Amino acid sequence: MYVTVLWFTINIKTCGKKLSSCSPSQRPAVQRSVRLCQAQPDSTNSSWTEPYSPESFGFSQIGIIRGPHGVKGELKIAATCDFSHLRLLKTGTRHLLLPNRKYPRPVVLLNGKKASQPNTFIIRLKHITCREQAQQLKQAQLFVRCGEGIELENQEEFLARSLLYLEAWDIHSQRCLGKIVNVYTREEILSYAKPGAQDILELKRIDGRHVYIPFVRPIVPKVDLENKQIWLDPPLGLMDISFEENEEPPRIRGYLSAAKDKINN
């Protein structure tokens, strides 16, 4: 899927629209953050199209076993999300999905350590004591239940999955604008742009057109997970920069200065 990177600035003309904003004192620039947690469907991953995939039951993939490490049953596993290190280095229950199986089974992670390769870990599972047993787990997937044991750093950090399908409301008009249908983390966006990119929410408006919303506190002042709502204070013109689902999104250029002070909810 084509991803457009959004940067915003105060009073800048872009794509024929003029974006304006309140003064910094009215709009405290607080940079929020998102943990991926396998949030958005990936068109290259067929498991997202299956009604009985582990994700549909609330599991989140944290790694894929690449094969045995050594002769004592240790496993080499490739991390697949940005909180994997929190779940691959600590003892506890995980969920293992073997190839050609539909539902993960619980397993006990005894210990884990970082490998020399990037995004790779060496782990040991209970009852796996030799290389032959470890070899049988090649290409198996390791899961946690979404949100299980994940420690968010502060009130400004959210699991991306928790933001999906929230109703978006205008904080001034109290009008429903649509629903959040996708979340793009800054790590994903950095593959398209230079540093400074922010997490992006994709909003599907009531009329079916899509809009990209920077996930920063001046524009998203309130997230109400309990009521499944997200409240927006969009700059003038932002909601007009929209696109159809099957057309190329607009290219928007400009910058929103980084937050100087952190303000918690």
UniProtKB/TrEMBL annotation:
UniProt-listed Pfam families: PRC_RimM, RimM
Q: Name one GO biological process term.
A: rRNA processing
Task: Tell me which residues make up the RimM N-terminal domain.
Answer: 61-144
> Which UniProt keyword terms apply here?
Chaperone, Cytoplasm, Ribosome biogenesis, rRNA processing
Q: Which GO terms describe its cellular component?
A: ribosome
Q: Does the keyword Transmembrane helix apply?
A: no
What sequence ranges are listed for the domain Ribosome maturation factor RimM PRC barrel? 194-238
Name assigned to this protein: Ribosome maturation factor RimM
Give the organism the record lists. Galdieria partita
